[in-house]
Amino acid sequence: MSPMSTPGAPQQQGDGDPRRWAPFPVQDWSTMPVTEPYAYVDPDWGPPASTGEPAQRTGSGSTDRRSGWLPLAASIMVTVLVAGGLFVATRAGGSAAGTAAATYLPADGSARYLQQQTSIGDQSTTSSHVAESARQTGALVLGGLDFTLGSKVLGSVGGIDHLDRMQFWRTTSTMIGNLGNSQQHLRVYRVDGPVELVAESSQSGADVYSPALLELPAHVGVGDSWSSEGSVGSRRYRSDLRAGPAEPGCLRVNGTIVESTTAGQAISTRTVSRTWCEHRGVTVEETVRGDVVTRLEAGIRPAADPTLRTVAEDWVWSDPAGWRRRDFDLLSADQSLGTGPMTGAPAQVAPVITASGLIFRTTNGDDIVATTPKTVDRWTSLWRMHPGGTVLSVAAFGDVVVATTSGREVVAYSDAGVRLWSLRLEDVAFWSPVRIDDRRVAVADAAGSVLAVDLLTGAESWRTSVGAQVSGPVVANSDTVVVFDAGGAATALDAGTGKERWSADLPAERAALLGDIVVVRNAATLQALDLRTGRHRWLLAQTGTMDDLQPFGDTVVAATQLGTVVVDEQGTVVQRLPAYERLTVVGDTIVGWGPKTAEFRDQEWRVRATIDTPDVDLVRSLPATLAYRQGVLVFGRNWTFSSWSDEP
Known about the structure:
It is built from three helices and 46 strands. By secondary structure, the chain is mainly beta. Among the domains are: 54-92 and 306-312 and 354-508, Beta Barrel (Lipocalin); 94-298, YmcC-like fold (Beta Barrel), CATH 2.40.360.
């Protein structure tokens, strides 16, 4: 077929365009409800909510029952060592010069639930929030802020000079139970000596302090008092604070913050009381402004929202022959200061899409950013999440997004940016969690631990060990989880109990489930094992570097640099196709992505459409293609991306 045409940019659609497929077609900040500003609170992080059933632990612990390590194991070990270094750096929290003030800062990626009560006279309202901490050095902090806010922060700290020597602490508080609105409150502190508030931003406004407001002197102690003054926007400010005793390991800081005009006329006075505790930040805060009293303190994690979708609907594409290309820019959007270019750079982690139509992308500063359409050719950031450390993988299950990190954790969020739960692992997990059933996913880490986790609560239904370093991949269905380790073995686990069903000597580069077999790419062969018994079913020779392996209908499609073969469950090659670098499967359509073109084929292997992609760089290290309800998206090395779809 002839390539699809690429028309010019379409005319812009209004904010109320009914054709928009995402649930948040435009985020008009001016229409968002305004709430009283609130501060970061850092209560103790609690364990996942109990499901009433104890987690089952099976397996052989850390005993290595494998032999004959593959050459692949060497590269895996190097990666593990690197990740181990990242883990140590993460837990060190990027200590701020070892000062007394630094001991009050929480670690990177720590999260706390809190409750806010706002009272006006005898009327009061309460709300729940979850707050995350980011500890970053130098320019990384700017990559974690929207462009407009980041520019002002840069001006406050003296510009780009010596930025690499500065250390920052960013807190992001997200309102719980406010699906569809970006209710986040950001604070940015400079912490390479004292703790100084540089900026804060919420829907009710953005304030940047110059010089920064001194929260804790570097060598703060009980009985100390201090003051700071400068400008905040077009106003002047002066703070007078003092430190008093509190419970062991904590300080209670009381005082006032007065804002005035440049001529010295007072505008507002806030009386503040904050309890700072070692390694936890601010645990209690009370602010009095006139007759408005706001108090924040430790809260409990709310029960999982049972209406949160963990499964997306099946997509049915229209005829791709009628699709057209559209190109998009991604903008960053501060809730008060407006939009600007997207900051930082995308990380080499695959973007994911939720059932609600939001695209989650990872930044080189290790934030996960939710994005949504703004106009016909631009998307904007909605909210940011920071699970801590380096984000190694991200996967979406309905409207739940699950990430693994170098901090040896797996962390889950709702599509509204709310952290649902966090779970410790034995070691880092380089591979994305995979679905077991509608509510559970399987996670495997480099130490050989494999666990089944509830998507909404984080509760483990079982945890076991395969006794050797997991080198990937992991595949699963509601009956069986299959794990491949660096010792060259495939292990099948019962998806309900975690008990081992069988083990076979079979190293794997890639794997896919097809009916009652698991198909494995090993060196220059495709092999199939019976999913119930582990017995070998068939073996085929296949040369060329493996690019992708995907089930499609009642076949499995194996793409290499030398060609692509389609194999049925009996091991018969039913079709030979051109070489593809990536495969995308949706319903009855498969897309084979080549270096310059992409072919859309049906289940009879007929080409339904061909599109030219001469300017799309499908770098093998970047999982750059993503299916969505109305077509496919292609991402490159920067924040721009393209779609081929039937969207008007």
